[in-house]
Amino acid sequence: METGLDRLIRGVERIVVWAAALGGIIVLVQMLWISYGVFTRYGLGKPDRLVTEATALLLFPVAFAGLAFALREDAMPKVTMLVDRLTPRMQHVFAIINHIIMLGVGMFFAYAGVSATIRSFNSGVASEILHWPRWWFWAPGAAALLLFAFFVALRLLRLILAPAPTEGDA
How far is CA 128 from CA 15, 29, 39, 123, 147, in A? Predict the structure, then answer.
């Protein structure tokens, strides 16, 4: 039977997929822009300073855009050699502990990202060459980190509410 929590997680997973797709689009834009920058630098002998700054500033939002998607796809790096030898009940306990750690780290980075966004917005600081407000680059990364922390919290809640598997369930 599907619960309200399962429906909420499924809805958030849709947002997670769109965030990862948006991050992929930004990577494609960066790839094209960097290719243009390499051509102007080495082919024409006139480096474009905009390329260097823009790609550097876009690294922060791109770095975290796919974080929640990696969690959804269970693509986080992990070592399971020892955990696989435990009973299903202990594996469940370790999964809960793992999600608690991910939630703590995710909340810390989300706080740092939101704080940086707010501070750059309040200061009105702009990029040196592009003259675009810096908070434009901080906000997508902060939103991605908030999405990750919320998604981890939902998955943790589902793990806690789910009965621990027994030997016969494995």
Answer: 33, 21, 23, 14, 29
Q: What are phi and psi of 125, to 5 degrees?
A: -65, 140
Length of the chain: 170
**Pair 163, 93: CB distance under 8 Å:** no
Residues 9 and 154: beta-carbon distance below 8 Å: yes
pLDDT at residue 56, rounded to an integer: 81
Q: How far apart (Å, rounded) are the C-alpha atoms in residues 78 and 90?
A: 16
Range of the domain at 132: 4-169
Q: How many other C-beta atoms can be found within 10 angstroms of the C-beta atom of residue 130?
A: 15
Number of domains in the chain: 1
Confidence of residue 83 (pLDDT cuts 50, 70, 90): confident
Alpha carbon 15 to its chain's center: 12
User: Which tokens sit at 70?
Assistant: 């990696």
Q: What does the block give as tokens for 21?
A: 């797709």
- DSSP character for 126? B
Predicted confidence (pLDDT) per residue in 93-149, tens digit: 999 999 999 999 999 999 999 999 999 999 998 888 888 898 998 999 999 999 999
pTM equals 0.87
**Integer CA distances (angstroms), 151 to 39, 121, 159, in order:** 41, 26, 12
